[in-house]
Amino acid sequence: MSKEYQGVLTFAQQVDGEISGVSLELIGKARDLAHDLNTQVTALLLGSGVRPLAQTLVEYGADRVIVVDDKALATYTTEPYTQAMTDVINEYKPEIVLVGATAIGRDLGPRVAGRVHTGLTADCTKLEIEPETHAFHMTRPAFGGNLMATIICPEHRPQMATVRPGVMVREIRDAARQGEIVDFLWTAKENACYVQVEDVIKKVSKKIDIQAAKILVAGGRGVGSGENFQLLQDLADAIGGEVASSRAAVDAGWQEKDRQVGQTGKTVRPNLYFACGISGAIQHMAGMEESDYIVAINKDPDAPIFGVADVGIVGDLFKIVPKLTEEIRAYRQQQA
Amino acid sequence: MNIVVCIKQVPDTNEVRIDPVRGTLIREGVPTIMNPDDKAGLEAALRLKDEMGAKVSVISMGPMQADLVLREALAMGADEAYLVTDRAFGGADTWATSCTLAAAISKMDYDLIITGRQAIDGDTAQVGPEIAEHLQIPNISYAEAVRVEGDEVVVKRQYEDRYHTVRAKMPALLTALSELNDPRYMTPGGIFDAFREKTVTIWTRADVPVDDGNIGLNGSPTRVFRSFPKTVKAPGMKIEEGVDESVQFVMDKLREKYIL
Predict the structure, then answer these.
(1) Phi then psi dihedrals of residue A196, to 5 deg
(2) CATH class of A8-183
(3) Chain B residue at shortest CA distance from A260
(4) Segments forming the whole domain that contains residue B99
């Protein structure tokens, strides 16, 4: 492959002027890749009035930030973002492009890959440079997480991948880090692909995002009802965690979709994960098995969840969870 | 109004098992189904047809067996069905698949194209937006509600923490979430018609106006380098004791790990 294409470009997603967590995680991963390729990390920041965010991206590890600041990019829509990203790719010719597998990135990524005619590997969980050939290996789950596949993109550049939030690890912020900030001159071109956003309705949630929580108390079908989730909430309150859910409990209407862990929900890696009444469908485990410590409570001794649990309790969650809550409260009081 | 719905026949991934020795999928005995997001997309199309009148055509790319999901779509109420099938299209990644489908759709009349957000076997969510790119029409991903007003489509578009109400001039493509609706069942009369009266039009390589360089394995920018079963970490301890003992065990472990 020609040396015309060089460097790692990450899409620095921001919404309402706030950098999305996955953007920083991508920079963290890009640093590893750039190290192995002996090249540089460039973050691409698109939006309106977002230039002040560029320095933050430098402090998290970007060697260079390309800013496209334009009113057409104020609220995300597919076409102007695709144009801006494509123009930057055509100008700077990165070897690798990383995009967060968010509701924005999974829309923007394929549209950009389609426009620049290259491959895009979705929802990668592992990205590596093969030491001898410098080939980019993109590994992702397939068939609902039953199988892992390593994908390559040998003939086309850039090699593009999306990465789910919570999978990669961001670097520690360093205010002393220096980087170049480039203002990219850009104007939107008219075509038939534009849409209008008429309204933005934010979902109100006072809860902490489960991806940010250090401790999660997750419930599944075995919890039995929405009301019963109160037992899990009590445990979460006692230990200082958040309630999460399997897909079954979301489909049953017991929990909101934003609480869902797994293949079609969120990927989490908390310090402690309680799986209560969750049998452990492979799709669920794909979203939580990287947790530091997993405690599973299930009455079925053969539940697959015990295969990934550090501690598996075979028993009745309706007895064990309240008792555990009580013990933790007592312990906390004694410590205070 | 002409609506084209893209449908994929997929293995029911809840039923898929891995051969632990060879590390390959065991497909034998695994039922195939209409991909759930696609089925929601079809239902959305059929509701627009019920409300305002429309011709609903379904299209699938795959082996001859995919005839079955197209018949299912006809039995649910679709008017026409097309199967794009040829060895030359085999081994396609999302780029080659979307090029092929876009070329096939370009032969049809369409105001609205609906695809599922993603298929449960690949989970890429790429083919819908890429079809729109090849046809140079707008796409709206993650649709949770859809209505048509004149020559425009209005979509409630889902994000992690918000919705956008998005309006696009047709022709346009949207990708459907399974949250969009509860798909209807096939009717007995519909099943009868789908298998006895209606036809599935077969389009092979010669019927699809697409470059050789953009189809099948050779037209695919990506390759599977290798596939392997997921490595599972060694299981930890499993306790089958009474409530008090179990709780005490967890408490000890949490203290030992400095979590408490």
Answers:
(1) -110, 135
(2) alpha beta
(3) B160
(4) 2-214
> Quick one: tokens of A167?
């999978």
pLDDT at B122: 87
State the pLDDT at residue B24.
66
pLDDT of residue A69: 98
CA Rg, chain A, in Å?
A: 22
Beta carbons of B130 and A110 less than 8 Å apart: yes
Global pTM value: 0.85
Q: Give yes or no for a contact between B111 and B1, defined as CB atoms under 8 angstroms apart.
A: yes
Q: How would residue A131 be classed by pLDDT, with cut points 50, 70 and 90?
A: very high
Instruction: Kindly report the nearest CA distance between residue A2 and chain B, in angstroms.
Output: 16
DSSP A206-251: -SPPTTT-SEEEEE-GGG-STTTHHHHHHHHHHHT-EEEE-HHHHH
Neighbours of B183 (CB within 10 A): 19
Whole-number Cα distances in Å, B245 to A4, B71, B102 = 64, 57, 62
pLDDT digits (tens, 9 = 90+) for B70-105: 999 999 999 999 999 999 999 999 999 999 999 999
List the domain boundaries for chain A: 8-183, 215-335
User: Is A116 in contact with A86 (CB distance < 8 Å)?
Assistant: yes
Side chain identity, residue A71: K
- Give the model's pLDDT for residue A215: 94
Question: Which of B169, B233, B247, B252 to mutate against chain A (most A CBs within 10 Å)?
Answer: B247
Tokens for A153?
């993109």
Number of domains in chain B: 1
A318 backbone φψ class: left, alpha, beta (φ>0; ψ -120 to 50): alpha
Question: Using the beta-carbon criterion (under 8 Å), do A106 and B141 form an inter-chain contact?
Answer: yes
A144 vs A155: CA distance, rounded Å? 28
Asked if B75 and B23 count as a contact pair (C-beta separation under 8 A), the reply is no
CATH T-level assignment (fold) for domain A215-335: Rossmann fold (3.40.50)
Least confident segment among A26-40, A142-156, B12-26, B140-154: B12-26
Spatial contact of A265 and A250, defined as CB atoms under 8 Å apart: yes
- Asked whether the beta carbons of residue B235 and residue A309 sit closer than 8 angstroms, the reply is yes
Query: Would you state the pLDDT for residue B13?
Result: 73
Number of helical (H) and strand (E) elements in chain B, helices listed first:
6, 15
Give a yes or no: residue B257 inside a domain: no
Distance CA A255, CA A220 (A): 10
| B58: nearest Cα among B41, B75, B80, B36 | B80
Chain A residues within 8 A of B123 when measuring between CB atoms: 122-123, 141-142, 144, 263
Cα dihedral angle (A252, A221, A123, B7), rounded to 10 degrees?
-50
Indicate if the alpha-carbon torsion angle B210, B214, B219, B223 is positive or negative.
negative
Whether the Cβ atoms of residue B109 and residue B2 lie closer than 8 Å to each other:
yes
Q: Where are the alpha helices (DSSP H) in chain A?
A: 21-37, 54-59, 78-92, 105-116, 229-239, 247-251, 282-285, 317-335
Residue B64 sits in a domain whose CATH number is 3.40.50.620
Contact criterion met (CB below 8 Å) for A185 and B130: no
